[in-house]
Design brief:
The complex is a heterodimer. Chain A is mainly α. Helix content of chain A is 81%, strand content 0%. The longest helix of chain A is centred in the C-terminal third of the chain and has 30 residues, at 123-152. Chain B has five helices and twelve strands. The radius of gyration of chain B is 27 Å and the shape is globular. Classes of the chains: A mainly alpha, B alpha+beta. At the A-B interface, helix 2, helix 4, helix 5 and helix 6 of A face helix 1, helix 2, helix 3 and strand 2 of B.
Chain lengths: 153, 319
């Protein structure tokens, strides 16, 4: 999906993320729709704009979760930047690229947030909960994209 | 533009400049003090996140009302039972204070507040934000508790509410005493790897022996927490320290994750807690033997540095 449809998906993911924030925080391996929306957005933006998007989303997330402002903004800005740069490296219209990109990207973001923002992460968090969260994120993003494309098309 | 709107290589310099700016801003945000970060967070929560937070509040209220109804009825019944049991004691205490002509004790009032629902996904899970009216003008730090026990401490204002730390926070300390008043100590949080945080009673005298299940109450020393609030109950002996003191594991009375509605103590003004007021307005003698000394001969005045002896009254029998 490209253009307006993709931004509808991203907007939906971010709205659902903030609207249901208490629900996601109650799950140990819930989907991280903020990271999913950011990574999807980074595919359609220049690296600097993707980083700026991550920076703003980091500010919102840190304010919502009462987390550390600076590290959260920097991690998500770096994720946006990295996502946009990776798009130049890989051919991103491959059917397998998007889910792999989302799973790996969300996994990395979760681990970074756990270590830098949350003060530490157990081995189970790194190897079980973060990958499960990444898989759930990819599944929700794929489902939302299918749903939006059904209505948009 | 290349495929998918990717930039031309010539724009990379602008991208790098933007990255430098963002890293600088991120570094600046990291260097902000906790109070300054509070202000930024409060601004964002009051503007961009306000609709979402209102939605969370409304949803939490709807859920909590139904879930808490039976629990509230149970709490009300147990409170009525407690009131009946302690009414006679309170009347007896009031009679004794009348006889001793002591002023009524001022224990302050409380304000109801709501803990922001949900524990944060990133950041510090031991921090909370309170919503409620009249919280920002309190004198901080001040104790936060429920009917079941101590929740934590509010450290400062946060927008129109307050921001604080649960008892599970590493900086949390509270002075406690056992129900019978025989043993006192300091309670702090203990977080072992992979386990829920519990409390640890530090500084109990080596000779003391606290039975499991004994309740620990706040002493009220230092005026941050009101006296008599349940902190937890002793679980077991943790360790003895070289014949010097003992440590006990303490089961907390309140779990942060289950906390929704809390009470914030509005402590009375400091001057009303001062000792002279507790003595019915009489000044406190600096020298405890001053009242027993013979009065100074006429014409000789006491040195200016000495406090005058207290006026005799019926309460102290004219000693």
């Amino acid at each position: 999906m490209r253009g307006g449809g993709r931004w509808v998906v991203i907007g939906t993911l971010l709205l659902v993320h903030f609207a249901l924030h208490p629900v996601w925080t109650a799950w140990r391996a819930g989907p991280d729709l903020l990271a999913g929306g950011l990574l999807l957005g980074s595919l359609g933006l220049r690296a600097s704009r993707a980083a700026a998007l991550g920076f703003v989303l980091g500010l919102l997330e840190a304010s919502m979760a009462l987390g550390p402002l600076g590290p959260t903004m920097l991690i998500l800005a770096a994720a946006g930047w990295g996502g946009a740069r990776l798009r130049d490296v890989f051919y991103s219209d491959s059917a397998r690229f998007m889910p792999t990109f989302l799973v790996v990207g969300v996994w990395v973001i979760e681990v970074l947030q756990g270590f830098v923002g949350g003060g530490g992460m157990s081995p189970a968090g790194v190897l079980v909960y973060a990958p499960l969260s990444a898989l759930a994120t990819a599944a929700v993003c794929w489902g939302t994209e299918r749903l939006v494309s059904f209505f948009v098309a | 533009m290349t495929y998918l709107g990717a930039p031309r290589p010539g724009r990379r310099r602008a991208d790098v400049a933007m990255a430098v700016v963002l890293v600088g801003l991120g570094g600046l945000a990291s260097s902000l003090s906790r109070e300054q970060q509070n202000q930024v967070e409060a601004f964002v929560r009051g503007t961009a996140l306000f609709p979402f937070l209102e939605l969370h509040r409304a949803s939490a209220e709807r859920t909590a009302v139904g879930r808490r109804l039976s629990a509230l009825q149970g709490e009300r019944d147990s409170l009525v039972e407690t009131l009946i049991r302690y009414r006679a004691l309170a009347e007896e205490s009031a009679d004794l204070r009348d006889i001793a002509r002591l002023a009524d004790p001022e224990i302050g009032v409380v304000r109801a507040a709501e803990v922001y629902p949900g524990r944060p996904r990133v950041g510090d899970p031991d921090v909370f934000v309170l919503r409620g009216t009249g919280l920002s003008d309190l004198v901080f730090p001040v104790g936060v508790f429920t009917g079941s026990g101590l929740v934590g401490v509010a450290r400062g204002p946060h927008g129109t509410g307050a921001r604080g730390e649960f008892w599970s926070h590493p900086d949390f300390r509270v002075s406690v005493v056992t129900e019978d008043g025989s043993v006192s100590g300091i309670v702090r949080a203990l977080r072992r790897d992979g386990e829920e945080p519990i409390l640890l009673l530090d500084g109990a005298p080596f000779q003391s022996d606290i039975a499991p299940g004994t309740r620990l109450l706040t002493t009220g020393i230092a005026g941050v927490y009101p006296p008599g609030i349940t902190v937890g109950s002793v679980r077991q002996l943790a360790e003895e320290e070289a014949g010097w003191m003992k440590r006990y594991y303490v089961e907390p009375a309140v779990r942060p994750a289950e906390t929704r509605l809390v009470l914030v103590w509005v402590r009375p003004r400091l001057d009303s807690l001062a000792v002279p007021d507790q003595l019915g307005g009489r000044p406190l003698p600096l020298d405890s033997l001053a009242a027993t000394r013979p009065a100074a001969p006429p014409g000789e005045e006491a040195p200016a540095s000495e406090a005058p002896p207290p006026a005799p009254s019926e309460a102290d029998g004219g000693r």
